[in-house]
């Protein structure tokens, strides 16, 4: 499995990705083999459906949003391996020792930023009430009445919004998430 | 210690990055990477043309370039110091060997080689790969670091884009170093490292393993995710009680039950350990077993079986003393445990207050945990998010609700009235039942129906089952917040349960007293009889007819010398049964406990399971919506269930003295309850309509438990000190009071003075002062607590204030961004040079613009060309503009040297106030410009001023060779350093040669201004 992947993947490419994402050599080859197995059409790139077959994303109620973010890295409707790795790197768990490390792709700031983009559906750098509502609907389904969802959305905006524009900007988002454990929740275990 | 932290990924990552960057070949993707690096790094630029000696890279970068994560603890120190430590400094031998060559090599190359002497940055094809010096007196620490570094080189040398020749040489040198020094290093050291690593791993694994063994953890978590924290709190409470009962039963078993079984007399040896003759034929009946009569009654289960001999067996085990001490000890232990738990809880609740500033934001934006990879867990998490949101909504709704005061007050009065009536009714009913049971007692047990036999426990159980439902209905009309409602509900059920228990206890004691009364009557009758008959037989022999009947008795009596048997005989004759009342109480408690379990199971099956089945399946053919309307599915009643647990525990505490095996029974019962309840909850119940969050510290449960413990201790205490124990059974038989065992022991086993001391201690003269002292202590502590509370509040407010205020300040500063830009513009004009850094500061608002990879630019926190609006104000916070700007502004940007620019990430620290990135708290180095005309055969060195004074030539940190030309140039020298000209060619011993220092105080005004403003940031 790994040998096949490493055959297809050139050494320089691995190094490049390693440098860019901080994954280890083994992880990259492993993820590459997973990439190829996800790639049903065998054209070296993944489509939306392929990505949603990743079990972690399939069970994540916000999985579609995450998938959407894979595509933000590139322009077209396909994700190549580099883009795939770049997005996955955001989910690399943060080593407790590098907690104050700001530079890594998997740093707390980068994770926050990724989360922000996940909720910012129309990509205008503000999370509006409607966007919160949509996210809420994805998260709780039909278990909570629409009216209550509305009040939750209102409360959420109210809590985080400091400049009074009824929307949440990235700074406000960061401030609200300041003492939360985003870095732990936005992590996926990758095998070594 | 911290050496291995962060070792895994970062050094390698950095290495690859920086090994490619000097070459200047950046493809598309790596330049993108470079962008993101720019955010966190500021550059260092060596401009050969101007002979600039630069030294402003961050200490962390330095440490990283060393190839280990040692920079972590150093990054907090000031700038120049760590570099001095980590830099490889050529020793004299080195200089001797290489001094000539250095003079002829290009300056930048030389400097870089020295700067990154870790061996990782050997991107030139030179043959001088710097190995760790052969310093004989290097510390073990140093050698260890070097060894690790060499190992890393070996492991990753294949990935280097070098020539094979160089790779081989490098590898050889590394191996050579290892072979030389690895042995030198004391083995202990290596082992220590290895053990530490293994130990960390083992510890983590153990923690995982331990979590696996917390009983019912997953079960509780699952229930919590579906039913909310309140329902889960019941199960957590149950588990906690389970642990208490485990301890209680272990203690009782090991100190009371097992000794009795091992060294005590066996069954059937004495009358009290044998089933009496008349009961023998019924001993095996199911009804007898159900009553815990027959063989069970005469077994270790109950008080009556235990022997009263002071010393048991060969070892002389003092069973009565042990029995008494265990009885007291279990109360003391329970008290201690509950109080400790409460203190713990309140401490936790203190810690967790003030965190609900962004409740909804957290719930919405970081609800999902991406680590979840299992679909079942995902379902649970999904449910948990929903439940959590619903809890939060309820909290919010309750905060906003306006009360209609008069109506609700009226309703509440009515409700309380109804509840008092109900409580009184229940008390009366129990009283009645117990009285009836006394009558049944006198009748023949065979003629009684099943109901009549079990009336007491049945009625008590039914009341405990049914009344809470009424309470719940009544409570709903009070319209409290659900949590307050739960508390009221809990308090009421508690009163009900206590009332029941006490009525039962009082009734039982009455029965006991009656029994004792009868026994006493019989005894006095016997004694007078004996006395009279003796007189008769001695004095009036002729009056035989009168005494004939009595004589009969006497012969009977005389045949049995034993005093207790005397009573037995008499009671048998008089038709009075003297029973072992302690055993009766124990039996009653045992029966109650078992019956309670059965009732729980039955009612749950009927009210939850069958109802659920009915609702589920009859709904297909019913005329109204069964599921949504009446009856609907059952809800899990937290209040009654928690109270049920407390009540149950109270029964155990009350009965444990009379039936030592009761805690063990309770352990089994709790296990069964845990499984049964959790099954019923998941199977038959729906989550509450209004899910509310359990308060973080469920101290209310524990307060109730404490009250219950106190109240259940009272009867036992009363029995111990003021009721005469049964004369013919149990460990205390023959003593006037159970408590006497202690005074007996003190008298027999302790020295005489101790008894005297004790007797003094128990006089009023001592006791009253002690009580007063205690009261004073309580008062003092109380006032202290009050003061601490106030101080606590003040501190919390201060913290809150500082947090918000600190944030405000940072935002103000970010608003000052435009001012800074303006300033940048002025400096640029002043210098009349196109400084790229200044341009970068100015342009940072629109990073979509393509830029030179060498030009530092603010990329904006969000790639893809989109920048949040606030980003334009970020540069002063994201960068340390001070040093870079100084550099760039002072030195004309040279395009040809741009490929030599290095990016060195700087470890930055988290601002405790708002999580924004700030530059490390380093005073930005200041530079002065020194005019200098190079002389052939000399080289320049920057030497720390302080060090030069001290004369430590080892600390020389950077050097640059002069070029052959003698054109005057200006050199920037960092503050705290002195420029020294060294004649290298003159002698081999360069260090001792003539040194000329240039001291120039020409500080650039604008620069010092700039650094002031930067340090203010």
UniProtKB/TrEMBL annotation, chain A:
Pfam families: EF-hand_7. GO terms for biological process: protein transport. Residues 107-142, 148-183 form the EF-hand domain. It is found in: Cell membrane; Cytoplasm; Nucleus. Keywords: Calcium, Cell membrane, Cytoplasm, Lipoprotein, Membrane, Metal-binding, Myristate, Nucleus, Phosphoprotein, Protein transport, Repeat, Transport. Gene3D superfamilies: EF-hand (1.10.238.10). One of its GO terms (molecular function) is calcium ion binding. Coiled coil: none annotated. PANTHER family: EG:114D9.1 PROTEIN-RELATED. Belongs to the calcineurin regulatory subunit family. CHP subfamily. This is Calcineurin B homologous protein 1-like. It comes from Branchiostoma floridae (Florida lancelet). The lineage of its organism: Eukaryota, Metazoa, Chordata, Cephalochordata, Leptocardii.
From TrEMBL, chain B:
Belongs to the TMC family. It comes from Branchiostoma floridae (Florida lancelet). It is a multi-pass membrane protein. Residues 580-695 form the TMC domain. Keywords: Membrane, Transmembrane, Transmembrane helix. The gene is LOC118420432. Residues 1-43, 57-101, 822-891, 941-972, 986-1017 are annotated as: Disordered. One of its GO terms (molecular function) is mechanosensitive monoatomic ion channel activity. The chain crosses the membrane at residues 231-258, 321-339, 409-434, 454-474, 651-676, 700-721, 753-781. This is Transmembrane channel-like protein 3. It is found in: Membrane. Pfam families: TMC. The keyword Membrane applies. Residues 10-23, 826-846, 955-969 have a biased composition (Polar residues). InterPro entries: TMC, TMC_dom. Residues 25-35 have a biased composition (Basic and acidic residues). It comes from the Eukaryota. GO terms for cellular component: plasma membrane.
């Amino acid at each position: 499995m790994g040998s096949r992947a490493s055959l297809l993947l050139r050494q320089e490419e691995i190094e490049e990705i390693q440098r860019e994402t901080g994954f280890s050599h083994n992880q990259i080859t492993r993820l590459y083999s997973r990439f190829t197995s996800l790639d049903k059409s065998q054209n070296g790139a993944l489509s939306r459906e392929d990505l949603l077959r990743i079990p972690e994303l399939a069970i994540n109620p916000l999985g579609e949003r995450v998938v959407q973010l894979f595509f933000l890295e590139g322009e077209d409707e396909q994700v190549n391996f580099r883009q795939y790795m770049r997005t996955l790197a955001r989910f690399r768990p943060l080593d407790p020792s590098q907690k104050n490390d700001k530079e890594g792709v998997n740093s707390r700031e980068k994770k926050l930023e990724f989360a922000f983009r996940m909720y910012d559906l129309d990509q205008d750098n503000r999370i509006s009430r409607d966007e919160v509502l949509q996210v809420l609907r994805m998260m709780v389904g039909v278990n909570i009445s629409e009216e209550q969802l509305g009040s939750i959305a209102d409360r959420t905006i109210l809590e985080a919004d400091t400049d009074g524009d009824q929307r949440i900007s990235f700074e406000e988002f960061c401030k609200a998430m300041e003492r939360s454990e985003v870095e732990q929740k936005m992590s996926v275990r990758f095998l070594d | 210690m911290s050496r291995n932290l962060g070792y895994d990924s970062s050094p390698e990552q950095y290495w690859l990055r920086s090994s490619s960057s000097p070459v200047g070949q950046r493809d598309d993707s790596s330049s993108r990477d470079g962008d993101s690096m720019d955010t966190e790094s500021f550059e260092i630029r060596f401009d050969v043309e101007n002979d600039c000696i630069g030294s402003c890279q961050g200490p962390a970068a330095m440490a990283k370039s060393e190839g280990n994560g040692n920079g972590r603890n150093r990054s907090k120190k000031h700038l120049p110091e760590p570099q001095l430590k980590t830099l490889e400094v050529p020793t004299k031998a080195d200089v001797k060997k290489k001094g000539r060559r250095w003079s002829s090599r290009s300056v930048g190359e030389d400097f870089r080689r020295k700067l990154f002497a870790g061996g990782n940055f050997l991107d030139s094809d030179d043959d001088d790969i710097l190995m760790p010096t052969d310093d004989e007196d290097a510390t073990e620490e140093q050698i260890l670091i070097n060894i690790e570094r060499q190992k890393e080189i070996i492991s990753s040398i294949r990935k280097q884009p070098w020539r094979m020749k160089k790779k081989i040489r490098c590898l050889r040198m590394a191996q050579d170093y290892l072979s030389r020094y690895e042995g030198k290093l004391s083995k202990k050291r290596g082992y220590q490292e290895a053990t530490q690593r293994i130990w960390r791993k083992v510890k983590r694994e153990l923690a995982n393993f331990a979590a696996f063994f917390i009983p019912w953890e997953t079960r509780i978590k699952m229930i919590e995710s579906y039913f909310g924290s309140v329902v889960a709190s019941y199960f957590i409470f149950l588990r906690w009680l389970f642990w208490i009962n485990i301890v209680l039963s272990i203690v009782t078993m090991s100190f009371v039950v097992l000794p009795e079984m091992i060294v005590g007399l066996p069954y059937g040896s004495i009358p009290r350990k044998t089933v009496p003759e008349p009961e023998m034929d019924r001993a095996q009946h199911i009804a007898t077993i159900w009553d815990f009569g027959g063989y069970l009654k005469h077994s270790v289960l109950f008080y009556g079986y235990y022997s009263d001999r002071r010393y048991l067996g060969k070892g002389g085990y003092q069973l009565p003393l042990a029995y008494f001490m265990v009885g007291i000890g279990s109360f003391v232990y329970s008290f201690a445990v509950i109080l400790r738990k409460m203190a713990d809880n309140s401490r936790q609740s203190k810690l967790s207050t003030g965190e609900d500033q962004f409740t909804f934001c957290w719930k919405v934006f970081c609800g999902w945990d991406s680590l979840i990879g299992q679909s079942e867990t995902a379902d649970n998490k999904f449910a948990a998010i929903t439940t959590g949101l619903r809890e939060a909504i309820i909290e919010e709704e309750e905060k906003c609700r306006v009360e209609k005061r008069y109506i609700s007050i009226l309703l509440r009065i009515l409700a309380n009235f109804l509840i008092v009536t109900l409580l009184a009714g229940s008390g009366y009913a129990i009283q009645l039942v117990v009285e009836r049971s006394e009558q049944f007692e006198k009748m023949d047990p065979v003629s009684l129906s099943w109901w009549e036999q079990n009336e007491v426990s049945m009625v008590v159980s039914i009341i405990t089952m049914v009344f809470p439902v009424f309470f719940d209905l009544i409570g709903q009309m009070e319209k409290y917040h659900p949590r307050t409602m739960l508390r009221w509900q809990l308090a009421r059920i508690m009163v009900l349960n206590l009332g029941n228990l006490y009525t039962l206890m009082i009734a039982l004691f009455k029965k006991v007293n009656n029994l004792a009364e009868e026994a006493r009557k019989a005894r006095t009758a016997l004694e007078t009889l004996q006395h009279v008959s003796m007189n008769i037989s001695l004095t009036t022999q002729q009056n035989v007819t009168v005494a004939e009947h009595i004589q009969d008795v006497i012969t009977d009596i005389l045949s049995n010398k034993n005093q207790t048997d005397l009573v037995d005989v008499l009671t048998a004759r008089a038709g009075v049964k003297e029973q072992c009342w302690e055993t009766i109480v124990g039996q009653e408690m045992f029966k109650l406990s078992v019956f309670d379990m059965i009732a729980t199971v039955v009612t749950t099956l009927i009210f939850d399971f069958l109802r659920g089945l009915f609702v589920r399946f009859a709904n297909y053919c019913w005329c109204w919506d069964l599921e949504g309307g009446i009856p609907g599915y059952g809800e899990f009643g937290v209040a009654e269930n928690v109270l049920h647990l407390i009540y149950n525990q109270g029964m155990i505490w009350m009965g444990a003295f009379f039936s030592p095996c009761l805690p063990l029974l309770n352990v089994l019962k709790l296990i069964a309850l845990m499984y049964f309840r959790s099954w019923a909850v998941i199977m038959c119940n729906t989550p509450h309509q209004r899910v509310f969050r359990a308060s973080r510290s469920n101290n209310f449960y524990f307060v109730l438990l404490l009250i219950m413990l106190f109240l259940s201790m009272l009867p036992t205490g009363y029995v111990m000190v003021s009721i005469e124990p049964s004369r013919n059974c149990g460990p205390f038989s023959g003593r006037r009071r159970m408590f006497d065992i202690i005074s007996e022991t003190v008298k027999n086993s302790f020295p005489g003075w101790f008894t005297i001391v004790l007797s003094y201690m128990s006089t009023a003269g001592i006791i009253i002062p002690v009580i007063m002292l205690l009261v004073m202590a309580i008062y003092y502590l109380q006032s202290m607590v009050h003061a601490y509370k106030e101080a606590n509040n003040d501190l919390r407010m201060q913290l809150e204030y500082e947090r918000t205020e600190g944030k405000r300040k940072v935002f103000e500063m970010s608003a000052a961004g435009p001012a800074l830009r303006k300033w940048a513009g002025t400096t640029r004009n002043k210098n009349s040079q196109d400084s790229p850094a200044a341009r970068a500061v100015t342009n940072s608002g629109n990073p979509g613009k393509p830029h030179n990879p060498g030009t530092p630019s603010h990329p904006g926190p969000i790639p893809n060309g989109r920048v949040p609006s606030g980003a334009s104000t970020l540069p002063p916070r994201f960068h340390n503009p001070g040093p870079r700007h100084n550099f760039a502004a002072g030195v004309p940007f040279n395009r040809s040297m741009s490929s030599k620019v290095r990016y060195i990430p700087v470890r930055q620290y988290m601002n405790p106030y708002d999580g924004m990135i700030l530059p490390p708290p380093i005073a930005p180095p200041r530079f002065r410009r020194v005019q200098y005309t190079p002389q052939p055969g000399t080289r320049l060195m920057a030497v720390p001023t302080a060090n030069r004074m001290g004369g430590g030539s080892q600390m020389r940190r950077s050097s640059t060779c002069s070029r052959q030309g003698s054109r005057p140039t200006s050199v920037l020298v960092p503050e705290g350093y002195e420029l020294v000209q060294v004649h290298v060619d003159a002698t081999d011993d360069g260090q001792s040669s003539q040194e000329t220092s240039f001291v120039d105080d020409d500080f650039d005004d604008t620069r010092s201004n700039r650094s002031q403003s930067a340090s203010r940031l």
